[in-house]
Structure formats: structure tokens, C-alpha cells
Design brief:
Elements: H1 13-29, H2 34-58, H3 74-98
Helix pairs in contact: 2-3
InterPro entries: Holin_2-3 (IPR025140)
Transmembrane segments: 12-30, 36-54
Organism: Rheinheimera maricola
Length: 99
């Protein structure tokens, strides 16, 4: 007898639904704010992509996925992930606070 497959929703589906509900609430309460919300969302998205590519261009041979997930390479992998997160954070803050 074949194993029965279960259906699982993608991760963060609940939060995506909450975000859509909140966007709908903004549209109902204050529709003139929708362009501002979409503008801010576009800035954060653009800054995230920019931060990722800044990290890749500054450190072309030091990517987090090149380290092993266990063993003695665990510390450099964590530091590479932390470095990337800080660069993305700096780009997001710089772009969103500067405009």
C-alpha cells in the first residue's frame, strides 16, 4: 500500500495572510496611504537585493554555503552569515532612512 501524502502549506503562509488582511484594513481606513505603504515595501525589497549583491561583490569567494554545516567549519559559516546579515541590514537602513 503506498504511503499517503499530506499537504503542507509553505512557511510563513499565516504571516502572508495577516499582511494581506492588514493591507486591506489600510485600504479601508485610509486609502490614500496605500501608495506610501507600497513605496516603503519597494524600498525594503530593493535594499535587501542590493545588500545581497554588495556582499557577493565584496566577498566573492567567501559565501556562507561554501562551509560545512557541522564540524570545525561551523564558526566561519556562522560569521559569514552574520556578515551578510549585517551588510543587508545596513543597506536596508541606509536606503529606507535616507529617502
Amino acid at each position: 500500500m503506498p504511503a499517503r501524502r499530506t499537504f503542507a502549506l509553505p512557511r510563513l503562509t499565516l504571516w502572508a495572510i495577516v499582511a494581506v488582511i492588514l493591507l486591506f484594513a489600510i485600504a479601508m481606513v485610509s486609502p490614500q496611504q496605500l501608495p506610501v505603504v507600497l513605496y516603503k515595501l519597494a524600498l525594503v525589497t530593493l535594499a535587501s537585493v542590493l545588500g545581497y549583491w554588495v556582499d557577493r561583490s565584496l566577498f566573492p569567494y567567501d559565501r556562507p554555503h561554501t562551509y560545512a554545516e557541522t564540524g570545525e567549519d561551523l564558526m566561519p559559516r556562522g560569521l559569514a552569515m552574520l556578515r551578510r546579515a549585517l551588510i543587508v541590514l545596513a543597506c536596508v537602513l541606509g536606503l529606507t532612512l535616507g529617502l
